[in-house]
Amino acid sequence: MPSPARWPNGASSAPSCWSPATAAPCSATPPAALALVGQGRLALDAPITDWLPDFRPPGPDGAPAAITVRQLLTRTAGLGYRFLESDGQGPLARAGVSDGLDASGITLAQNLRRLAGVPLLFALGTAWSYSLATDVLGGVIEAAAGAPLPQAVARLVTGPLGLRDTAFHALDAARLAVPYVNDAPGPHRLAEGETVSPYEELVGVRYSPSRALDPAAFPSGSHGMVGSAGDVLRLLEALRAGGAPLLPTALVDEMGRNQTGAWGRPTRRAPASAWAFRCCATRPPPARPNRPAPGARAAPTATAGSWTVPGRSPWSR
């Protein structure tokens, strides 16, 4: 998968460099939603049809599903990703759904309408799936905040924390990291419209590197932001310290709590894992060498994971 961390000469990106925040732990969308919960403008267990009345995808039984905000945050809403389909004729591909990484030319509302017509992968709250749930959450935030997602996130998260480098498109192309793709004999620069798959059996992601510079591209809550390492640290430190000025401590604690019980989907890096809000929370058995300790939190992506240590994580104080 593309990585912005290295250049052809082997030098690392500078901390001030803007990187596309594709599924990054610094994604500001979940904290924005929780800020609205703290303000009483969203409710975790309310159906999202309270804010998106037409988003009722058919469940496995064919009946319209009433997804909750909590199920979006925990990725237990039965949604999927187009790039995780096995071929180019999967349900999401046929519906024209965008994963938020390509130059689709559609709006967020149009993408959500397309997604709402695709049957869920499983009954609500019965399994976990990496998915476009955070993009749907972005639509909920827009409706609850009464503002486009970029403005809502600026008002609720990036503004209060002074995250000047985090936004839905880069203002300075010179600071934007260049993405590369692992290849033989060496990595190559990611091309516009290039498709890259994390695993051979998947159709993969169609990428548009120029999307990060396009203010007209729809704001993808999962993949549509750019940000610097300093901004990531500032957000995580705010959560570690208790949530102020974004969230009450009770919501920060809820953010890191095991939300999926014993059936949380294990990952290769977290064989005994459960899922919290937009992150993975490990559970026993005790950690082994090169494995996270119980209670550690992570933000795994399709090909990578970032671990924090119990007692030092954003949710352990």
Textual characterization of the structure:
The protein is an alpha+beta fold and 317 residues long. It has a domain at 18-228: DD-peptidase/beta-lactamase superfamily (Beta-lactamase), CATH 3.40.710.10. It is built from 8 helices and 10 strands. Strand 2 (180-181) and strand 3 form a beta hairpin. Residues 3-7, 22-26, 266-272, 282-287, 294-305 and 312-317 have low confidence and may be disordered.
Secondary structure layout:
Layout: E1 19-20, H1 29-38, H2 69-73, H3 91-95, H4 108-116, H5 133-145, H6 149-161, E2 180-181, E3 188-189, E4 195-196, E5 205-206, E6 226-227, H7 229-240, H8 249-256, E7 273-275, E8 280-282, E9 297-298, E10 307-308
Antiparallel strand pairs: 1-6, 2-3, 4-5, 7-8, 8-9, 9-10
Helix pairs in contact: 1-5, 1-6
Number of helices: 8
Largest sheet: 4 strands, antiparallel
What is the succession of H and E elements? EHHHHHHEEEEEHHEEEE
Give the helix level as a range of percent.
10-25%
- The name CATH uses for the topology of the domain at 18-228 is Beta-lactamase
CATH architecture identity of the domain at 18-228: 3-Layer(aba) Sandwich
Proportion of beta-strand residues: 5-15%
Q: What's the Cα radius of gyration?
A: 19 Å
End-to-end C-alpha gap: 34 Å
Task: List how many beta strands DSSP finds.
Answer: 10
Task: Pick out the low-confidence regions.
Answer: 3-7, 22-26, 266-272, 282-287, 294-305, 312-317
Mean pLDDT: 82
Tags for this model:
two-stranded antiparallel sheet; 317 residues; 10 strands; alpha+beta; four-stranded antiparallel beta sheet; 24% helix; disordered C terminus; Beta-lactamase; 8 helices; globular
